[in-house]
Design brief:
It is a single chain. By secondary structure, the protein is α+β, with helices and mostly antiparallel strands. The protein has one domain (2-78). It is built from one helix and six strands; from the N terminus they run βββββαβ. The protein has one helix spanning 53-66; strands at 2-6, 9-15, 21-25, 33-38, 41-46, 74-78. The strands form two sheets. A four-stranded antiparallel β-sheet has the order 1-2-3-6, with helices on one face. The chain is globular, with a radius of gyration of 12 Å. The two termini are 15 Å apart.
Length: 79
């Protein structure tokens, strides 16, 4: 699991095999591009990939305790 961002906007990704990646998304948001600092560098991400702290923490809790994706959250695959 990788988490980046801050100030209320977080990018959360998970991989189990370094080939298939899952990105946490908020489907209530648009596909408009947003500039966000992740890992100390600016990057362009769609707004739907910029999730709030609550979604981020739910994803982290489930992943840390159960080693899987939280099924109540929405994930998109990215290869």
């Amino acid at each position: 699991m990788s988490i980046g961002g801050g100030a209320g906007k977080y990018i959360v990704t998970v991989t189990f095999d370094n080939l298939n990646f899952y990105i946490l998304v908020d489907l209530a948001k648009s596909n408009n591009m947003e500039k966000l600092v992740v890992g100390g560098q600016y990057g362009n991400f769609t707004a739907l990939q910029c999730v709030d702290l609550l979604r981020c923490l739910l994803a982290v809790r489930t992943f840390a305790l159960e080693g899987k994706l939280d099924e109540l959250l929405t994930w998109q695959t990215d290869k």
